[in-house]
Every structure is written in C-alpha cells, then in structure tokens.
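ASSEMBLY PREDICTION REQUEST
Request ID: AP-0331
Submitted by: J.K., bench scientist
Number of chains: two
Total residues: 678
Priority: normal
Notes: Please return the full assembly, not individual chains.
Input sequences:
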Amino acid sequence: MRQASQSVTRILLVGNPNAGKSTLFNALTGGHAKVGNWHGVTVGMLEREAELSGSTFSVCDLPGIYSLNGMSMEEKSACAYINGQRDALLLFVAECATLPRALSLFSRLAGEGRRAALVLTKRRQFERAGGRLDLRLLESTLRIPVISAEDVGKKELKERVAALTNASDTALTQVGEWALPPAAYRPQREGLSRADRLLTNGFFAIPLFFAVIALVFYVTFAPAMPGELLKNAVEAFFAQFLYGYAQAIPSPVLRAFVADGLLTGIGGVLCFLPQIALLFLFLILMEESGLLSRLAVLTDGFFAKIGLSGRAMFSLLMGFGCTAAAILTTRGLDDKRVQRRVILCLPYVSCSAKLPVYLTLAASFFENAFFAVLLLYVLGVGVAFLAALFMKGNEQQSFVMELAPLQLPKPFFVAKALCFQIKQFIIKLATVILAFFLASWLLSSFDFTFTYCAAEESMLAVICGWLKYLFAPIGMNDWKIAYAALSGLIAKENVAGALALFYGGFPYSAASAFAFAVFILACSPCVSAIAASARELGWKRALCYAAVQTVSALLLSYAVYFALSGVGAYVALALALVVLFILLGKRLIEKLYGRRGNHAEKLHR
Amino acid sequence: MDITDLQCGERAVVASVEAPAPLKERLRALNIRTGEALVLLRVSPFRRTYLVQAGSTVAIRREVAQCVKLRKA
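STATUS: Completed
Returned structure:
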C-alpha cells in the first residue's frame, strides 16, 4: 500500500453525469472540454497536463457514472479505469443538490488505501432553492477534504487541488457507506420552480420553442436583420476594400488568383461567419440554460413513435452545429440500435457548414433568404424523421433521464464557447478549405501544359468532364456543378466556395437551384462526419450509410426538379425509384447486419 | 398502484421496482428504490412521460413508470 505522505501525479475527476467535472477540468487545465448543462455531455475520457502551484499533474476527466455495475459502455469503462489507477487522487465531484446520492456512489468507489477529496459544485443554485450545507461538519464526518468550487476563485482552486495531492488527510482509512448527518445537509425544496412549471408544460413550452426557433432564424436570415447586415458588412469588406487592393497586383495570373480566386472563394465562405455564429449562440444558450433538457423530456413521446428517444434531441439539435460532433454525442444513447438510427438521421439535419451553400443558392429561388433557409431546414428535419420512422424497429424501449437544473447562462461561459466555435470555423477555413481551394483554382486555371487558360479548357474540365451527366436531369449539364457537389465531401463549405469560384451568380433556373439545394441537404455528410460515424458503427456501415444517402439524395433532387418543372410522369417514376432504392437499401442493410441482438436497455447515461 | 396512477403533486413510497436488472440499477442510482418516497411533478402531453422528484428530478417514460409499484405515503 502506498504511503499517504507520498505525492501523486495523476488526478481523476469522478462523479455523476452533469456534476460539473468537465467545467472543473477546464478550470484546472485550461482545456476546452465540451461542457453543457445536460446529462452525458462527456462521452469519452479526456486527459491533459495541468500546472498547479508549480508542479505538473495529469488531470483526467471521466464520463459521468451513476453506479458501479453501470449499464452503459462508458460507465463500465470509467469504473474499470478508476479501479486500475490505484495511485491516482480521486477528486469526487458532486452537485450539492444530489450529494446524498453521489456519496453513496463514492463510498463504493473509495477503497482502503486510496486517496480522495470531495469537490462540491453549484452551491449557490442549491442554496437559492432552500438547501443548506455545513462544509466543516461534512469534512469531519467524511474525513476527507471538501472544497466548494464556487466559493473559491480559479487560482485558489488550483492551489487547493495542488495542496491535496500531497496532503495526508486525503488517505482513506475507513471503508463503509458514507452517510450525511442531518445537521450537515438539508436538501433543497421539493417541487418545480415557477419558471419550470411553465417550461415543463408541453402545451406552453413546445409552441414557445418553435416561436423561439422562428425568431432566431428571422434575426439571422431575414433582410435588414443583424445577421444579414453583418454578413453584408463582411462581404463589402472583401468585395470592395480588399478586392480594390488586389487590382493593384501587377502580374495578371497572380491578380486573378488573389482577386477572383482567393478573395471571392474564401471571402464567399467567410462572409457567412456572423450568421453561423448567431446560430451557434442559440445552440449554446439552449444547452447552458437547461432548456434542451426540458425539450428532451417533452418530445420523448413523439420520438418514441419514430423509434428514437427524447435523449436523441440532444444529438439532433447539436446536429445543427456540426454533424461530426453530434455523432460523438450519440454514444450517450445506451441502445446501439437507437444510436444507429440517430446517426443515420443526423446528416439530414442541416449542419452550420451547409448554411453558406443554402444562402448562396437561396437567392435563385426565393427573394427572402429567411423563407428559403427555413424551408430547407424544415425539409431536412422532415427527411430525418422519415428516415428514423423507416428504420424503426419494434423493440421495447425504456427512457429514464434526469432533468438538468434551469439556470441563466453565464455570459463568460457563453462567450468562451462561442469564441471556440468561431475559432474552429476560421481554422477550418484557413486549412482544409483553403487547401482545397488552392487545388481547385490551380486545376481550373491551367491546362495540362501549365498554361493559364479558361476553366472550360483546364485540367479540371478534362478530369471532371464526365461528371456533367450527374446533374443533367435537373437542368444543369455542367461538370462544375457536379464538382462543387462532390467537393462537399471534404467540407460542405467547399460547395459554396466552388460555386463562388466558378460563377459570379448562380446561372441556372430556380427549380435547378432548389433541386441542387435538396441534394446538398440529403447527401452524404463530410469525411469527418463519416469518420465519426465509422468510430461508432464501423467503417462498413458508415460507408454504406454515406453511399445510400448520396444515391437517394440524387434521386430525391431529380424528383424535386421534375415536380417543380411540372413533369408529372417523371415525378411518379422518380419517386418510385427513390422508394424502390430505399426499400432495397433497407433490405440490404438488414441482410448485412440483421443478426444484431443487443438487448441492453436504452437509458441515458 | 404505480407512478401512472398518481395525481400531480401526490406523494407515495416505492413498494417495489419490477424491472430488468440494468434498468432497476439505474433507477436505484437515481433514488427510485424500495422504501424511498417520491412525488409526481408533471405529466407530458398524451401521458407519455412522467416527471418525478426523488432526490433529483427524473423524467420516466410511461412503460418504465408502470414498473415502479407504489404504496400510500
């Protein structure tokens, strides 16, 4: 057994879901672990070095656990990891409101000879709801150090945690059920607060949610609203200010590259940043406030009907931000079958990267971008639900989920999360999209003898010429459109970038533009999302989903075009093809994977 | 009597939980276990999901709520 005086180098953050482990992790390490006010945000283990009072420690953020013989994979692996790390300091993280329950879990994890301390979170919220807590009495009862994270500053918190690593009082001597003396702890008031009574009332909260979404879309996309105004400002900066400077470049090839290639293409994507940021702001506020958790409870009844659960709401709403990130959150769904369905639906929920494409195309089929984008988003969600319904099994599901506390989001946290998303977007733009763009420009500006030429004689035209037949049925017998569509596989923003590179304004009819938008909406997600889904489901299934989605999207876009151009017979034919393809696809998928017998109860972690 | 028989605001004590082991364990971890009291807070539209207070606030689908047998507090 190790000596208590010996110091430790590894700190494990252990606790129930939504206790605040990742927030503590970020505070200690300066990391950017994803945090959110709902249960099951962290799905994998995170480890990072932290400088605490001059020494380096390795801090480990574990997914939340409810019990030792937990049902979810994450719970099992977290427990095994804790048991394996005998020398680490266990930092038990507990929300004040659920301390009794957390202690019962901790007393099972705390073995003799281990070292542990307790960090309490959300004390102010707890006391506002009528709870009381005596830290000193608690400390003397449990005989381990207790820190209330909210009562100490970030610097002091780091010092206190560093001090714990070589303090002798962290050594556990007695092993038994930890019980709270009534004098040390008084639980908070029972029942729902007035705000919560309204927000858990389905007849009030669901219409409110739709109204809020409509408002967010209006503010972001409608003409003369903040989103649109900011977008125009960025666009003007690129188109007038920088473009003017670029005209002064003497070499014609370099000038064409900077002005018509770089500024138009990259600027064409970057100008959507304000609108993407507004959308992310909405998502972050939904998450942080706890509204998402209430929405998940209220919509569970509906989701049950299409074979999902209220818990899927978290992943689907995250899907409006980034499909790849949303796919990772599906690990919180304990039932593998439900997880598969959610991953299949997620690409139809338009991610923020599709937004630039929609807005580039929207001008061709609707005067007001607000209606166009709303229509496409609603259509996407509709297709997602149809896909879920289609894949629905007849298994009996159970749904048990804790309600996250309702809170006003802290401006600092919201700003930090938003800056992180903006940074991610700019990094992506400066790396993947820029590289793709350079390649596209080079290939479409030079022929095989490396002479500067028009796009139609370029290398790209020769390489991709055969692609023109792909979108010929929707009135665009043009390889450039097909190339733009395929470039979305790398990153969806590329589609908008490529369209800006090749055309000043979208040159085809409204019906073609809309059908193309529908293709982008329904086709396979980008490679990072495919990789994320491969991590969860295996490469075979992930690639199979992507292929089925792309082919069905193509057929769907044909059907939409024919419907819009009023060719009734073709519509019937195309629809029949889509249905046939989907039916065959499902049969094929079932044949490949039919024997799954995962009967684990689906409960959210 | 089970959770679905309660009126909103009514309190009862859990008599037994008749569910498969993993589900029972999860409910136990959330303080829904034999001998513990709980209060029904709210029922979602179409009586699909039940919001129960048992230490913390927990949402339970109807099928699970029917597994939690209760007696009068």
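REVIEWER COMMENTS: The interface with chain A takes residues 9, 19-20, 22-23, 25-31, 39, 41-42, 44-46, 48-49, 51, 53, 55-61, 63-64 of chain B (CB under 8 Å).
SIGN-OFF: pending second reviewer
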